[in-house]
Amino acid sequence: MHQLKSFKNNRVLLDAGPIIGLYNDQDVWHERCKAFFAESKFDYITTLPVITECIFKIQKDKNLSKSVSAVVSLLHALCTEVFGLYQLSLEDLEFIKQLRQTYKDQKLDFADFTLVATAETLNLRRIVTIDCRDFELLKMGSGKKHFHIIEPDVKLL
Questions:
Q1: pTM, rounded to two decimals
Q2: Band (122; pLDDT cuts 50, 70, 90)
Q3: Hey, which of 14, 80, 115, 133 has its CA 20 to 30 A from 48?
C-alpha cells in the first residue's frame, strides 16, 4: 500500500454507504449510486477500515458468485486508483482515540472516525455519504467545522 497519488482540487472523502450502494445491486441506493459515480467528477479518498466495512456488507449477499464478483470489482477500483486509499498514520490513530473519547456517548464506528482523521490530515470538508446523521454530528478542526455532506444523487451535482 502506498500514499495517495497526486489529486486535483476536487477531492472528497468517501464513506461506506455509497460504495456499498454502487457494488451491491440489491441495495436501495444502487441505481442512485451508479448514476452518481458515472456523472460526478470527484477524486474520491477513503480508508482501509471503510473498505473493510464495505466488503463485509457486500459479502452478506446470499449469491456467493455475485458477492465475490462485486468484491473483486471494488478491489480493482482500489488497485487502479479509481478510489484513493489514505493510509492512516500513528498520529491519525492517536487522533481517533481522542475522537472516540469525545464522542463516547454516541454509537459511531471506527471507519467513520478514520474519515474524520483523514479530513483533518488532508484538510478536506466534503464527504460523499448516505449516513448524514453521523456526519452532521461529527466535527473536525477541534470540533468547530462541520462536514459538507454530498449525498450520492445525480440531481445534486
A1: 0.88
A2: very high
A3: 133
- For residue 147, give its domain range: 11-152
Is 113 part of a structural domain of the chain?
yes
Name the 3-class secondary structure at 115: helix
Residue 118 neighbours by CB distance under 10 Å = 25
Q: Is residue 3 part of a domain?
A: no
- Which residue, 151, 83, 153, 152, is CA-closest to 118? 83
Coarse DSSP helix, strand, coil percentages of the chain, rounded to the nearest 5 percent: 50, 15, 35
Number of domain units in the chain: 1
Q: Which of 143, 134, 147 is nearest to 107 (CA)?
A: 134
**Structural domain includes residue 42:** yes
- Strands of 26-82 (E only): list them: 43-47
Instruction: Quote the cell numbers at residue 111.
Output: 471507519
